[in-house]
């Protein structure tokens, strides 16, 4: 299938129609051949499709299509209850180990997330808490097995987004005065998008703030995403709504300040109540602009004329102070998937083939524990020292292993000396 084809994606699209495109995107070989991940994902997607059609499961399982309908399962049939039932199926009568159940479910969850980004689904149902509730605890995963950005990966990603931002901002800021207004707007939009991506990556890479504290959660109105008024770049701090259900100040270290300052200057938000990381989704912004201008008394014809004067609705929203929503955590994952691929970063992880947002936090945790110990790391990570010790126990185990090796070397060496 041509990856650039304009295949229509609707709720009535069958599940299997999306598999080939997904596997092409995820396979190591761009032609769709090779790659352990692709093979394993293809196997699990086939099993999921058979289960959804009623060909797997218990004797009384008839699939997710209503009994009075004769067709293949489509995206219209999917919701979080379906994924909850599949999680229950995986953990049921197949005799799978707990960590194997988790692994198999992650293949389906990754496909579900891709379907959201590609427009097949409206929400990442597989990641909903109710969908994942039947999954057993993963008794095979150690804290150190969870993704953490390495220093090399962090530097590669931040260097890439910094270069992309510079390459987009400089042409915009050096445009001749007689440049066509729409061309100027296009250049500004490209600069804004690159600057937003750079700022987001630097914040995720260096602050160790949870992505759910930074961006919007559609299911929790208190988590509306950080706004510019929540940031104090002079003090190097940012107010976030913490996991413990209260507002608290998080640190903004030096590497983060410059990208945020440059981005703020470029955006020049009409008020400081604007989100730091607004959505750039064209459909969302188009609907928002039309509705807001209509509420302000503008007629449909006037709204169309006004929108035609702008290359992008985001720029109209900035001029008219029509505040867009922040991107969601799913949106951040989509951005990082795109950037990880563009930066050609080498990633070897069983769950993620890109640098996931939580990996930035865990990567900083690794750095802090190694450099300053558990107490300082716990304060920066907004966690108890006990929890940090548990999650980063592999570091202490490795260090103790080095101590044991050194001790054995000294003792064995002294024994050998006595026998010589």
From TrEMBL:
Signal peptide: none annotated. Transmembrane segments: none annotated. One of its GO terms (biological process) is DNA integration. Keywords: DNA integration, DNA recombination, DNA-binding. GO terms for molecular function: DNA binding. It holds the Pfam family Phage_int_SAM_5. Residues 169-405 form the Tyr recombinase domain. The keyword Lyase does not apply. Residues 10-116 form the Core-binding (CB) domain. SUPFAM superfamilies: DNA breaking-rejoining enzymes. The keyword DNA-binding applies. Gene3D superfamilies: 1.10.150.130, Intergrase catalytic core. It comes from the Archaea. InterPro entries: CB, DNA_brk_join_enz, Integrase-like_cat_sf, Integrase_catalytic, Integrase_recombinase_N, SAM-like_dom, Tyrosine_recombinase_XerCD. PROSITE patterns: CB, TYR_RECOMBINASE. PANTHER family: INTEGRASE_RECOMBINASE PROTEIN MJ0367-RELATED, PHAGE INTEGRASE-RELATED. This is Phage integrase SAM-like domain-containing protein. It comes from Halobellus rubicundus.
């Amino acid at each position: 299938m041509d990856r650039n084809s304009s295949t229509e994606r609707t709720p009535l699209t069958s599940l299997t129609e999306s598999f080939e495109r997904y596997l092409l995107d995820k396979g190591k070989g761009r032609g769709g051949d090779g790659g352990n991940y692709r093979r394993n994902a293809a196997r699990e997607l086939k099993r999921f499709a058979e289960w959804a059609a009623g060909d797997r499961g218990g004797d009384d399982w008839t699939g997710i299509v209503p009994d009075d309908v004769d067709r293949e399962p489509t995206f219209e049939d999917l919701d979080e209850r379906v994924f909850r039932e599949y999680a229950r199926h995986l953990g049921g009568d197949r005799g799978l180990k707990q960590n194997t159940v988790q692994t198999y479910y992650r293949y389906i969850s990754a496909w579900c997330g891709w379907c959201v980004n590609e427009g097949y689904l409206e929400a990442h149902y597989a990641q909903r808490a109710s969908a994942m509730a039947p999954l057993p605890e993963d008794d095979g995963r150690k804290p150190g097995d969870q993704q953490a950005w390495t220093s090399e990966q962090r530097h590669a990603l931040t260097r890439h987004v910094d270069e992309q931002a510079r390459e987009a901002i400089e042409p915009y800021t050096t445009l001749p005065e007689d440049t066509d207004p729409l061309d100027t707007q296009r250049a500004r939009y490209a600069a804004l998008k690159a600057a937003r991506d750079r700022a987001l990556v630097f914040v995720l890479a260096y602050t160790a703030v949870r992505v759910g504290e930074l961006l919007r959660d559609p299911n929790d109105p208190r988590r509306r995403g950080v706004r510019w008024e929540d940031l104090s770049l002079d003090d190097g701090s940012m107010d976030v709504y913490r996991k413990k259900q209260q507002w608290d100040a998080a640190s903004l270290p030096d590497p983060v300040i410059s990208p945020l300052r440059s981005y703020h200057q470029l955006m020049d938000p009409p008020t400081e109540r604007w989100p730091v990381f607004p959505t750039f989704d064209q459909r969302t912004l188009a609907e928002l602009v039309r509705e807001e201008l209509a509420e302000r008394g503008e007629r449909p014809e006037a709204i169309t004329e006004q929108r035609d004067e702008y290359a992008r609705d985001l720029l109209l929203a900035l001029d008219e102070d029509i505040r867009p929503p922040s991107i969601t955590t799913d949106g951040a994952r989509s951005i990082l998937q795109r950037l990880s691929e563009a930066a050609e970063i080498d990633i070897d992880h069983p769950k993620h083939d890109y640098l996931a947002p939580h990996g930035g936090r865990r990567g900083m945790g690794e750095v802090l524990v190694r450099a300053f110990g558990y107490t300082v790391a716990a304060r920066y990570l907004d966690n108890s020292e006990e929890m940090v010790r548990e999650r980063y126990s592999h570091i202490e185990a490795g260090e103790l292993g080095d101590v044991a090796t050194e001790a054995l070397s000294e003792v064995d060496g002294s024994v050998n000396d006595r026998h010589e």
